[in-house]
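INFO batch 0412 | record 1 of 1 | parsing
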Amino acid sequence: MCNCFCFFCYSAFGSLTVRSLLETREQCLYEFSFPDPYCHLKREENEAALKFLPSRLNQLDSMAWLGRQMALIEGVLAGNVFDWGSKAVTTLLEKGNFGFMEAKSSLQPRPWLVDNLDAWLERLKGPPHKRVVIFVDNSGADIILGIFPLVREFLKRGTQVILSANSKPALNDITHNELVIIVERIITMDETIKTALYEKQLQLIQNGSGSPCLDLSRIDQTIASCCNEADLIILEGMGRAIHTNYSARFSCESLKLAVLKNKWLAERFGGGMFSIVVKYEM
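INFO prediction complete | emitting tokens
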């Protein structure tokens, strides 16, 4: 009976993958009137992170160029720890004394599990990118203290930045509508981001997804067209950079950033919990 059922599921819906399981979970929540069970938590985390953004930007501005570039990547990784879809992270966060600085100090020392940081830093010594598309992950410290400082650095280099968030809720991932609200708050704190938004050097475009993973064959047509003209794609987080697109090759440069917060996945890659992936490809 079990074998027959498995064969039916495979025939009807394709192979069973992490992506299909996560998408089924979100579909069930939506159908039973729980479209965004993390909405209040996301709002609280966004408010908390916004309070620390000015000091975070000032700290980065005080650094020399090389140290700042390393700190920006480490900041994205530290922010990516805040994933309520991970049981190990949830245990830490529920204790109430685990913040961005604690996450940053807990990052594994280099060399990381996948460590192309030196190649990325060398690339940054060259001409600036014309357009970068960043597929963002979590709300709170991830997007505000991790991604936005990196966005600001790109803007200062003259690069056009497109931030692409989910169209529909999934776990504590930031949605497009929430991202719009956050940016309105951030432009009151930073002139670089404010000017870039008004001049359309910074744009927000939803990706059409409602999953923690990202199937690039099913993204919204608008963001797909933007990617065609990009010379850098950044995928952040386990779902987007590891589960679904780790082996994806692009016609432009790509940077995949993630902290592995699932024991099975980490061991499959030959690492342990909270192993770090910084995969840069030209």
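INFO post-check: The CA atoms of residues 60 and 238 lie 26 Å apart.
INFO record closed
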